[in-house]
Amino acid sequence: MAAPDSDIEDGPEDMASEAAMRAPSGDGTTERTASWPRLQRHIFRAASRHLPNAAGAEGEDVEPPPKHTGRYARWLPVLKALPWVLGALFALSFVWDFPGVRLSVAGYTVVLEDLLRFTAVSGLVGFGTNWLAITMLFRPREARPLVGQGLVPAQRERVAYRLAQAVSDELINKALIKEKIRESGLVAQYRDLLVAAASDVATDDAVRTEVKALLRRALRDVLSTPSVQERIVALTAKQVEAQAGEGLSGLMLRAYRYFGEDNFRARLRETVRRLPDAVDPLVEELDPVLDRLPAELERRGDEMEALLTRVLLRLVDTLDLERMIYENVRAYDERQLERLLRRTTNEQLNYIKYLGAALGIVGGFIIWAPAAALAVVTVLGLAVYALDEVLYRSSA
Fold first, then answer.
1. From the first residue on, what is the mean pLDDT of each consecutive set of 10 residues in the chain (396 residues)?
2. What is the DSSP code string of 289-356?
3. Which DSSP string corresponds to 58-80?
């Protein structure tokens, strides 16, 4: 697709320079106005309609998968309030904890005294142990004399190594990249784009004019250099003598040079000094070559595709994917690594942490009234499991 016009249009100064460039004069105006940046702009403008652009690329950006939070997400706000409620109940248990209160249920008498303290302490212990376990995954970030260092920071190098090894072996390995290159057909597609872009560049009048102006200036600069001219004179004299041979023409040439070497050299130097003014016809011969270029590129399309494929595969062979991934992950400091892991698991970790408080409350009931609490917990657990199994089978 073509690039936006604002990216490739020439400004007024460039247009004026181009006009000057298109009107060559004998005093070298064309050569002075020629420039590589302008040639690059002309080439890009001619080829841009064939260049793929991010908005029109076949492979669109991968959408992030939806977050599967499950039903527990709706309970998380309630669970977050549990530690505060338990703390308040624990404080209340020092003042009042059902002193002497008894409850009769189906002929059984249940003593409620110390219920608040048992459930509050068990819940806080469940929350505290889970919080400590999750915190110790990432903290302390730096090794401490007594408490040590968090699991992830302490094993940062090994985490980076294992991650790099897993990704390079199972997810993005060289064999997979090569297979995708062959299956995608991208090489053939870009070969066609390259041929089409090169054809447009070769037939663009502005590109041709700029190329010829630069070539003309380069040839004149080279041929005007005294050292180059002296080398041409020496080479020409040597070749003339070699071509004359040993016959009569060679004898006459050697005789002429013997009696008039200075005149011979002067004539050669004068001829060579005129070479810079004779480059125009030579440069104009570039047009037939450029005219044949599109057909030649099209004819050699298969060779170009094979060459591009070999280059890409060789490039893949030079990549050390495992080391690249390892060094990138290793460059993460402890804080970045923690953010990377928490980015996808923080909600689940919070759920586990606060769920400990709820399970602790259940443990508190078991401590307070072991037989009754175990019976109730067992019945409720079996009921939840049975209902979950029924719902799972019905949705399968």
1. 43 44 44 67 74 52 61 76 92 89 78 88 92 86 82 81 79 77 75 79 81 84 84 78 63 61 75 79 80 79 79 79 80 76 74 86 86 86 90 83
2. HHHHHHHHHHHTHHHHHHHHHHHHHHHHHH--HHHHHHHHHHTS-HHHHHHHHHHHHHHHHHHHHHHH
3. SSPPPPPPPP---THHHHHHHHH
Query: Are the beta carbons of 33 and 214 closer than 8 angstroms?
Result: no
d(CA 133, CA 150): 10
Residue listed under structure tokens 């070539």 = 215
Please, is 185 exposed, middle or buried when counting C-beta atoms within 10 Å of its C-beta (0-12, 13-18, 19+)? exposed
Q: CA dihedral defined by 389, 394, 395, 396, rounded to 10 degrees?
A: 90
CA distance 285 to 215: 12
CA 286 → CA 142, 199, 290, 292, distances in Å?
69, 15, 6, 10
Q: By three-state DSSP, how is residue 1 classified?
A: coil
Residue with tokens 């003339």: 240
**Strand intervals (E) in 232-301:** none
Q: Give the C-alpha distances (Å, rounded to integers) separating 182 from 58, 178, 213.
A: 17, 6, 42
